UniProtKB/TrEMBL annotation:
Protein name according to UniProt: Uncharacterized protein
Pfam families registered for this protein in UniProt: CopG_antitoxin
InterPro entries per the UniProt record, alphabetical: CopG_antitoxin, Ribbon_hlx_hlx
Upper lineage: Bacteria, Pseudomonadati, Pseudomonadota, Alphaproteobacteria, PS1 clade
Originating organism: PS1 clade bacterium
GO biological process: regulation of DNA-templated transcription
């Protein structure tokens, strides 16, 4: 037997920024909302990593920065290229949300 929308809970609103979403999570009673469409973050990240990587970028950086990237990636147990992609994506998203 399928649950009705009322039995499932409220639908999550759409957010314009991460800050808006964070504020919502901090202040809302989440027990009232429907989580049935949510997926574990590990699945979401796996989808992003499966995206075709068809562009190569070469950049010059100080040896110390390169060493810091490699060390951070090793600590997180991920390849340093993945860390660079994540940092670039997070930085761009942060810049977009500040517009």
């Amino acid at each position: 037997m399928r649950k009705t929308a009322k039995e499932k809970g409220k639908k999550f609103p759409d957010f314009k920024s991460d800050k808006e979403a964070e504020h919502f999570v901090d202040t809302a009673d989440l027990s009232e909302y429907d989580f049935s469409d949510f997926r574990p973050m590990s699945e979401v990240l796996a989808d992003v990593e499966l995206e075709q990587k068809d562009m190569q970028v070469n950049i010059r950086m100080p040896t110390t920065l390169y060493g810091a990237l490699k060390a951070t990636a090793k600590t997180r147990k991920i390849p340093y290229q993945r860390l660079v992609r994540k940092l670039l994506a997070d930085g761009l998203q942060s810049m977009d949300s500040k517009k």
